[in-house]
Model the fold of this input.
Amino acid sequence: MISKHTGEIVRKDIINNKYILLDIQSSKNLEYKSGQYVSLFIKDKIQRSFSVYSPDNSQILSLGIKIEENGIGSGAILHDYKIGDKIDFLGPVGNFYYKEDQSDKLVFIATGIGIIPIKGIIDNLMILRPNKEIYLFWGVRTDDDILFEFKNYNIKYIQVVSRPTDNIQNVGYVQNYINKDTVHIDKNTSIYICGAPENVDTIKYHIKDNFVIDFNKIYTEKF
Ligand SMILES: Cc1cc2nc3c(=O)[nH]c(=O)nc-3n(C[C@H](O)[C@H](O)[C@H](O)COP(=O)(O)OP(=O)(O)OC[C@H]3O[C@@H](n4cnc5c(N)ncnc54)[C@H](O)[C@@H]3O)c2cc1C
Done:
């Protein structure tokens, strides 16, 4: 059974008027993997799921929330919650987290706010599995969607912007940058994809069409 917990909001940062970085301190110890998600009870009545990017088992759950235009849940978190407020949640639960599947090479692909669970998984790997060869491809629409910087990480990082406001090097859709010039993918590669459902499917079939892969090593989260 999935347990219900209570937490207290200990951080609420609004980024570029588009995103909220929300930290919730759980009143009880939690066992989970970064990349799983919690289901928040917002204003005690509506439930919305959010991926967790804090380290495995951290009692502080770090969430990244996109403020949707006319979004009921994200709008309520934006307007009606402040630091010190209590909020109930279920979880963390879910299947999107680092899998011990023996691959030395891990390729992560995110679109937009899909970066949240992927950042959590990569941050954990930096500490727990520093010898893995890690690639991150992250596609966003505009420059102000770039919530996190990965430049100082020991990974191969390719940022793609579809509608850049200035001279960004990689312009277009993220899948156009996943090719034999940027990464070698084979049956021993694990691939993690997170983003909007249509993007995840497009990226998955792009990879299938361009590389020989093990389908059992593709892990996806769609939202
Ligand atoms: C496993 C999982 C993990 C997730 N992780 C994250 C995460 O880490 N970060 C994150 O930001 N989200 C995440 N989500 C998505 C999140 O749960 C919400 O769906 C999202 O925040 C939108 O909720 P909302 O209540 O703000 O919008 P809603 O009110 O549910 O509206 C959704 C969309 O529909 C539009 N809409 C609403 N009403 C109408 C209408 N009458 N006509 C036309 N359009 C309308 C809104 O503008 C909005 O774009 C996750 C979802 C799942 C399932």
Residues 37, 48-51, 64-66, 68-75, 94, 113, 116, 223 surround flavin-adenine dinucleotide (CB under 6 Å). The mean pLDDT is 95.
